[in-house]
Amino acid sequence: MNTIADAIAVKPANLTADHLAQDQSTATTLGEITSANPRMICRDVNVWYDDKHAIKNVSLDIGQNEVIAMIGPSGCGKSTFLRCLNRMNDTIPAAKVRGSIKLDGQEIQDRSIDVVPLRARVGMVFQKPNPFPKSIYENIAYGPRIHGLTNNREELDELVETSLKRAGLWKEVKDRLDAPGTSLSGGQQQRLCIARTISVSPEVILMDEPCSALDPIATAIIEELIDELRQQYTIAIVTHSMQQAARVSQRTAYFHLGDLVEVGTTDDIFNQPQHKLTEDYITGRFG
Amino acid sequence: MSPSLLLLIILAAMALAYHLGRKRAIGVAGGVAQINRLHSLPAYYGYYAALWVGLPALLLLLFWVGLQEHILTALTIAELPPEMTAQLSEGQLSLLTSDIRNLATGNITAREISPEVQAAAAHYQRLSGLASVSLWSLTGALALAGMAWAWQHTTISFRARNRVESILMIVLILFSSIAILTTLGIVLSVLFESIRFFQKVPWTEFLFGTKWSPQIALRAEQVGASGAFGAIPLFTGTLLISFIAMLLAVPVGLLSAIYLAEYAPRKVRAWAKPVLEILAGIPTVVYGFFAALTVAPFMRGLGESVGLDIASESALAAGLVMGIMIIPFVSSLSEDVINAVPQSLRDGSYALGATQSETIRRVIFPAALPGIVGGVLLAVSRAIGETMIVVMAAGLAANLTANPFESVTTVTVQIVTLLTGDQEFDSAKTLAAFALGLTLFVVTLILNVIALHIVRKYREQYE
Ligand SMILES: Nc1ncnc2c1ncn2[C@@H]1O[C@H](COP(=O)(O)OP(=O)(O)OP(=O)(O)O)[C@@H](O)[C@H]1O
Ligand SMILES: [Mg+2]
Q1: ipTM of the assembly?
Q2: Beta carbons within 8 Å of A236's beta carbon, 6+ residues apart
Q3: Boundaries of every domain in chain B
Q4: Backbone CA torsion sign across A222, A224, A230, A233
Q5: Angstrom distance (rounded) from CA A126 to CA A194
Q6: CB pairs below 8 Å between A and B: how many?
Q7: pLDDT tens-digit map of B193-212
Q8: The whole model's pTM is what?
Q9: How far apart are the first and last CA of chain A?
Q10: What is the assigned CATH class of domain B228-462?
Q11: Taking CB atoms and an 8 Å limit, are B347 and A130 in contact across chains?
Q12: Which domains does chain A have, with CATH numbers?
């Protein structure tokens, strides 16, 4: 399905008139889509769910040590785009992804690439906390175990501890590592999932509205964490909160109905948006 | 003037009452434009009237149809000359009454008819005519009274909607209590018959005895007059066959469920599921002769060719076929449970770079395990209670053995053989069937309760 030939082809063969009509409406993205030091390079990415064209010709770079925020109205395709970056859309039978997505110069849409190590390199934190119905310890140890990252129990214990510490959860759970992960509060679960993701040391972390269900204190903890993680990782974060985007990101991308309307430094997007839609969205939220 | 005609008329009257009640409500409100002055929508006043017209009349009809014949017969017999009925036995009396009834309804009777019987028949006929007239007039009166009641109660502030709701609730309670009472009745009757059995045979012998041979002497002086009622060989036989069945059904059912739920493309699932459901729809009697006529001889032949002695009614054959019967049961229950594991858990595992089989083994299967165990327990209780296959394919000899190549018998098979043919109703042999039935009931009940408990507990985990 996702061969290089397909990736190079601008449009799939079975385009309907409807698809063409939607394609013509696609505006070119305003602002600077490239990045000085890119980790991931996406070009002309299109996604269909059956006949629904959910992402239209999106081109975007994601740079090293940068946090890029993706904003836009509900249903505009932010999650869909994020899921392209570690091929999570493979798990949705109806989804069809076309275009070129490169990680460190390597095409990840290529059929010959193994998605399992790819996903270990590009980790993901989901919008809704999804801890496994296992103990807190086992939740963190899961990834390192399947990838054989540690050689013995002591190393694993240490990895679990450092992961939990970096996610800011260690103090709260260090005395009950055997308690089920599902017994934690929503905010703790979200941090558990973040700890689980960083336990396999991914190079890129995708976060889909990680704070949508959190109180301001937990949100602040996670934002601090994102800031700290940035020193080492590349982070793409979807958020509905303008303030959060402004606080944690260096670049911001605004999506609208499947189009990437505008992208630029966070300062520029919030202070002098070039596109009317971006301005409306931002001022609407702030006003 | 049959009761079914009356039933139709009552239903028609209910329809009419609905319309009248509705009209009346609209009238009370002062026209269609003002129906929002009413507490409830006009239709509810209609339902209220219909229920009041129909329900009492229907209840009366039900009781009348149930009791009419008894009462009429008793009245007719009482009218017969006393010297005629005095020295009749119960059987003769019932013959006589059936003669009278036959005569009255114009059927041909088997015996010669005496003038007294003739007269009684005429009397019976008169009485039933009278009964019919009174039934019609009584139901009519009840229906009219119901209509009048509803008519009177149709006022602006009358809470017809709430009333209809509570009447409906009462009707529903009535019906569900029928279901519950029947179950209770069956359980109690099995219990009482079992108690009678345990008065003849001590329960310790029944539960712990190892010899089962329920033959009772026909004549008192016959040798070997007392049967042996040790049910252990039946229990072990049942367990052996169920065990073989589960040995086949659990792995096959579970693995096919995993394939269907996790791996199968949509197209394969679309035809594979119905095929499995067909397997579940085959009547067990078909499995039974499949086991007896195909599998058992095949096993025997197979055994001969490798030098094993396999009985022609081996536990193995019955167990394997029973296992095939249970496969769809296990697989559809497990598939439901696996599908109930949220997609977000799979996503979480894939996003960490786990493969599909790692995800299934380490996340989905542990999460689904309690539900799968519950499903397997339900399947076990089906296997234990299954009758037709073992009647046809398992033996009758109560061997105490764990060898699947030998013939064993099961609790259900013995219940069937104890009760087929002419039996004395209160012999220990017949009553033993009730004791076996009670044991079966208790065991499957316990299994089901445990299974449902496990399944429910597991369901709560994600909600
Ligand atoms: N699995 C799916 N099957 C079919 N259509 C889908 C699926 N997932 C998303 N879509 C559609 O694709 C479009 C983009 O969805 P997406 O989830 O990416 O939006 P989003 O920007 O993340 O929205 P939100 O802010 O509400 O999370 C929506 O119109 C949605 O209806
Ligand atoms: Mg989303």
Answers
A1: 0.85
A2: A62, A67, A68, A70, A82, A85, A204, A205, A206, A207
A3: 3-158, 228-462
A4: negative
A5: 9
A6: 69
A7: 999 989 888 888 888 888 88
A8: 0.74
A9: 45
A10: mainly alpha
A11: yes
A12: 2-132+202-282 (3.40.50.300)
